[in-house]
Design goal:
two-stranded antiparallel ribbon, 26% helix, 42% strand
Length: 134
């Protein structure tokens, strides 16, 4: 898998509104993928803070890419559960969204996502996910 292949998966497997987030594949290793979510007025709420809806969409997208990376190809899947904790607001900087596959079996996959400021490295959101592998 390469960063270019992960980036190319975005228009292949995600809806246009997800593509409009402007996510960029930033890094990957054996069990994780990191995306950059650029700051944008379209994704901000009062006080120029990144909205939670954008963070959750980016987290879900990053985890699907982490599964693609793990399997070496796209496998149809669907989100069964996503639990998120918002730790602090993020404004004035891009977000880095790191999704890590904790375990992938035959029918289910489990993951953890950390969203942090790209400049200060401080976590702003943590999420855990479960996916059904179809």
């Amino acid at each position: 898998m390469t960063l270019d292949q992960l980036q190319a998966a975005l228009p292949d497997y995600f809806a246009p509104w997800v593509q409009a987030l402007g996510l960029k594949a930033e890094a990957f290793d054996n069990d994780s993928v990191t995306l950059r979510l650029p700051q944008s007025p379209q994704l901000a709420r009062t006080g120029a803070m990144l909205c939670g809806q954008a963070m959750m969409a980016a987290a879900d997208t990053a985890m699907v890419l982490a599964l693609i990376n793990l399997f070496g190809e796209f496998r149809p899947c669907t989100t069964v559960q996503m639990n998120s904790s918002f730790l602090r607001p993020l404004s004035g900087q891009d977000a880095l969204v790191q999704a890590r596959v904790v375990r992938a079996g035959k029918a289910l996959a489990f993951g953890e996502i950390d969203i942090r400021g790209a400049e200060d490295g401080k976590s702003v959101c943590r999420a855990s996910t479960t996916y059904a592998l179809l």
